[in-house]
Design a protein that fits this description.
The protein has 18 helices and eight strands. The chain is mainly alpha-helical.
Length: 436
């Protein structure tokens, strides 16, 4: 309580995150815009705060691909075709996309009356009304929110239906239910492999290796049921990574233009859009770098931390066996950040967790500072490799089939799935790392 009472004015602290107006922000040395797009899409599957009580998580605390499968069986049922283990889909310009949820007159199709299209409490429907008839039927309320989210959902829908076809050809006696659920299980494990082999390796300066046989984890102390903690939720708010405007087909697209705009994905095409995002630099995840359209969320994050008495930045450094900062300069040597911290906080021990994560210096090849890097690395093992589908008596041919195990073993990167579902990529790039 004494620590919380000493904290400076929350609005003054929130100003630490503001990106200067009229600038594109500080650019990342190696991350593409595809990286924050994937991070947002991926974490939305398990970091889902209850709008009625933000202490609660509405997910099942596992990587389960609810982004395409839905948050409950009612939603899953409405998204399924009921045939051959596949999702409902449509073809536009020769490419597969999720079906449109609304008719041209703006009324919701009865088949999708159990779906939600906007986050609870957000007054977005009027803002995007002209685009409403082209919203896709997908698993979560945020599914249509950004081009990146739409692109990854579209890609995973295609991959699910492709796997269902492979299973049906190999096992013609299987019914729709077995085809669908087996494809679903394969999809989830594919995502876990990509997360550890590509995503975590992009974040961490140390290379991790995920083996097809995850048995090395079974006797580890951290092998236990997942629990998405408040701190884990907070450290994943990488808003500064987003550019002020996306570049699609060599044209800048602002926040207001890309929100809930499926046309941007359909008109550009999935592979060219992934290439666009790969060839645009993301911004650095640091203070003074959050774009204007996400700044208010930073203030809410600070309020969340204070309301739930999250401990100080130094307390978490100590907990994760890092040396405590003795002076403000131990956190950051950046003159602007250093001056701001000294002005706001009485002592270095008063610096807040959410502030310190983005204030701390990072190495020349590191995406994040040491505390955030350590926490993400720990979670990579304790929350990805402990998924029930990787359990000792589950991760086998009986669960996934031989066809499924072959697919899993041949999946390492997002590009693997993209190339399987778009044919020859023709030199188009798909990488979390920036390709100039």
């Amino acid at each position: 309580e004494n620590y919380i009472s000493r904290l400076p004015n929350i609005n003054a602290v929130a100003d630490l995150y503001k990106r200067p107006e009229g600038t594109e922000g500080k650019l990342s040395h190696n991350s593409s815009v595809l990286f924050p797009a994937f991070a947002m899409w991926f974490t939305d599957g398990f970091l889902r705060s209850d709008p009625k009580d933000i202490r609660k998580n509405l997910s099942n605390h596992q990587i389960d691909l609810c982004q395409i499968y839905g948050l409950n069986e009612e939603v899953t049922h409405q998204l399924r075709s009921g045939k051959e283990g596949k999702f409902k889909y449509q073809e536009i310009n020769g490419e597969v996309y999720p079906p449109y949820a609304y008719r041209k007159d703006g009324t919701l199709r009865e088949a999708f009356n159990g779906l939600e299209f906007f986050p609870t409490g957000h007054k977005l429907e009027d803002t995007v009304k002209p685009r409403k008839t082209r919203l896709f039927a997908m698993g979560t309320p945020q599914s249509n929110s950004t081009p990146g989210y739409i692109a990854f959902n579209t890609l995973m829908l295609r991959e699910h239906n492709r796997i269902a076809d492979e299973l049906m050809n190999a096992y013609p006696a299987w019914d729709d239910e077995r085809l669908f659920q087996t494809a679903r299980n394969i999809m989830i494990v594919q995502l876990i492999k990509i997360v550890v082999e590509e995503y975590i390796n992009h974040i961490a300066p140390v290379s991790f290796k995920f083996r097809a046989d995850p048995s090395f984890t079974y006797d580890e102390d951290w092998y236990r049921s997942n629990w998405m903690t408040l701190e884990f939720n907070i450290l994943y708010r990488w808003h500064a990574l987003y550019p002020t405007a996306m570049t699609i087909n060599n044209q800048p697209v602002t926040f207001d233009e890309f929100m809930y705009n499926t046309d941007l994905v359909v008109d550009r095409g999935l592979s060219p859009l992934m290439d666009d995002m790969t060839r645009q630099q993301a911004c650095q995840p640091c203070l003074f770098n959050t774009p204007y359209f996400l700044h208010e969320i930073e203030r809410k994050n600070l309020h969340l931390c204070r309301a739930h008495r999250v401990q100080s930045y130094n307390a978490y450094r100590e907990h994760f066996s890092l040396p405590k900062a003795q002076t403000f300069r131990d956190i950051s040597t950046d003159p602007e950040i250093l001056e701001a911290l000294q002005k706001l906080y009485k002592t270095v021990d008063d610096v807040e967790f959410y502030v310190g994560l983005y204030a701390e210096d990072r190495g020349p090849t590191s995406l994040f500072g040491p505390l955030l890097s350590v926490m993400v690395a720990v979670d990579a093992f304790s929350q990805a490799l402990t998924n029930p589908l990787l359990a000792k008596n589950v991760f086998n041919v009986d669960t996934f089939s031989q066809v499924g195990m072959d697919i899993i073993n041949n999946t390492h990167r997002i590009a693997d799935i993209l190339h399987r579902n778009t044919g020859d990529a023709g030199g188009l790039a798909c990488s979390l790392s920036y390709v100039g």
